[in-house]
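User: Show me an example of a complex going from sequences to structure tokens.

Assistant: Sure. Here are the input components:
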Amino acid sequence: MTFSPLETIDTSDSPTVRNRASQYFRYSLDELARQVDLMFVWLLAAEWIGMIATAAIVTPRVWNGVQYGFHPHLWAALLAGPAFILPAIALALLWPGSHLTRHVIAIAQILVSVLLIDATGGRIETHFHVFGSLAFLAFYRDWRVLITASALTALDHYFRGVWWPQSVYGVTTASPWRWVEHAWWVVFEDFFLILATRRSIREMWAVALSKAQLYAGAYHDVLTGLANRRLLQESFESRPQSDRESSRAVIFIDLDRFKQANDTLGHKVGDKLLGLVAQRLSGATANTNTLARVGGDEFVLLLDAVSGPAEALESGSSLLNVLAAPFTVEGHELLLSASVGISLYPEHGRDLETLQERADQAMYSAKSQGRNRCVVFSSELAKHENMLKEISRDLYKALINGELRVHFQPLVEQDARLIGFEALLRWTHPRYGSIPPSDFIPLAERSGAIIAIGEWVLKEACLSCCLWQMNTQSPLSVAVNVSAVQFDEPDFPDRVKGILAECGMDPSLLTLELTEGVLVRDMERARKQLSGLRAMGVRIALDDFGTGYSSLSYLTMMPADSIKLDRSFLSREFAESAPVIESIIEMAHRLGLRVVGEGVETRTESDRLFSLSCDELQGFYFSRPMPADAVREFVHLSQVASSRRHAARQLEETLSAPENALADLTR
Amino acid sequence: MNRRTITLIILAFSAFSTLLGMRALVAFDHTVGATGSTPEQWPASSAIKRAGGRPELLVFVHPFCSCTDATMAELAQLSARRNAGAPAPAITVLFFRPRHSGWAPNSLWKKAASLPGAQAVWDDDGREAKRFGARTSGYTLLYSSTGALLFGGGVTASRGHQGDNYGLDELSASLNSGRPGSAPTRVFGCALGNQDDAAGGNL
């Protein structure tokens, strides 16, 4: 049986399910016909023996005027075998289930009846054999077979009726009612049998439909109707032996930031979006290939007969193109992209598991390269992935071995007045050297190590903050980034409280930075967590503001103290971004939120942001992140610089008012 | 030759042999047996003892003719078809026997003897059969009590086949009315003495 896994399955009553049901149904009918054929093999053989016995008992011999001989009925019974019983049996054995076989059997069965009636001297009781034959033939559930058998019976009666009417109609040959009566009994039985056949066929269809629905459920993803892992595996394995060595491609598709859309707009929208994505991907894929949904927002396309990586890459790119157009779900217009990883058979693996794993590695590489792209698996990529795996394994050890360090980047107000630091994590791996946080933080989040690491960073930051206060007598604050995994821990506020108590730190000097994605996962829960933290006096900053889906509603709903403008605003032309920045700042101020500008690298950027009333700035222009030891010196220099700036400003003010200066001099 | 061709050949052979066989069978069943010249009046030369005052029913039978079973079965219904007041016929079933053959009564004899008011007798060398023009087993004659021929022919629709037939209808009507039937009916059965007389005798 062939079935295209690309067709969308609705497990209820879709055309595809009905197609499959019809395949099951036909198969059941054929199987049934084969079984009935075999039944008739035995039945016809038994009837042959029975017919010979009957003829031998009823009219064994006949007197031909000179001698006794076998009666023609006995000859007929004996020769019926080679004439029509054995050919019917041969067909049943050679071509079981074929339509020809069942019609030949129907003819043979009725001829047996005819001969039996003849051999018994036309006894009316023997006519029951005809009705029995029709009943047996009804096992085929094929009304055409019944019609063949009835037609032969009618023909036999017609010809006998024409040439020897007495033998069929007795003395009432002239009465048309006798013919009607004869026909009626056969029609009556046929009518009954065809009705029973129809009912039985309906039941078989219902069973086939149920099986098809079960199949659809077992082999297809209910949400999208695409193939599931099982069907993908079977499609991979069911490849014809002749095609085994030709190249195939496994294309792994992961939607970018789908989770964010799902969390922001709700699961219902997310589910519909997945359905639309599945439709588009199906539409862009040939029916001979297998498209499966293997995870939340993960799809795998099994591509047959691929000439090489270039063709696979082309297919992957075409999938990206079909996803590029906006999706409209429940009034929301959504833009999606995907990261695509490709592996090839047999170069990258000979089994689906390996191929899928390597396509997955390539897909992660596509994600790390900036998403919305296709990457073909390679040995270099495997090395990189292995490195990441090693890093992932080493993360716990890094904490224990003291390979992790917290660096601090200053936060300044207008006039470059230092107000605090943001704590930033750094890792120097013994083998790979300095590893950027963008590489290892996702790994730590995936492995769960982020909870321990995050708590350690928080503690380090708080301790450092307390030390600065003791050493510099300045109330400098510290900002710490919080991961989504960390924030999702139900006892997170308690842990923060414990650390603050342990360090003896003023909670108002601690700012926890959370991204939009962290908050929108479960807004009600997030609000509860944030309220708990703010109740302690901890300040909350919304990080990377202005990226992602930027649902502004949560700004009013979430208890926060400040927002951090994403650095991407500064990388654009100022003329373009200035109105947006200004609007955000104005909106934040109206909501009572402070605004922090990130990624400031030049004086121009600093001046522009301050001119737009940005409250705080941070970036390489002021200082690169520095180790905790360097902070004290930086604070001291900052204080000196601040004093000098203050003195200079006073002098500037004095000089700018000559009459005052003159008065001062006179005094 | 492929399987399809072989199948077609088998089916063609099957259809041909079946048609041929069926044709031969119906020829055997429906070929009318020979009859001789039956006297319109009871022949005085007949050695059969007449009952007197009753119609005489004569049935000529070959003891080995299995087809005549059907004739016996039909004649068994005769009494049921006889009207009240109609005289019961005296039935004589004459079994053909070649001289010195040593044939003994068989199951057919017993059936004949069991018919109501019937007697079974041997007709050595078929002398009576020749006298009455009977050449086929199952040939039935009805003479009135006055010796006039009322019915002559067979009482089955085909050879060895029971069931409604004109012969029995005619016989019953003649018996009930005492008048001759409209026409002689055909007889189906084995030849009484000569192979050439047998219906489908070459079978």
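The lines above are the inputs; the final block is the predicted structure for all two components together. Chain A touches chain B at residues 58-66, 68-69, 71-73, 75-76, 79-80, 82-84, 87, 90-91, 94-95, 100, 104, 111, 114-115, 118, 121-124, 160, 163-164, 166-167, 169-172 (CB under 8 Å).
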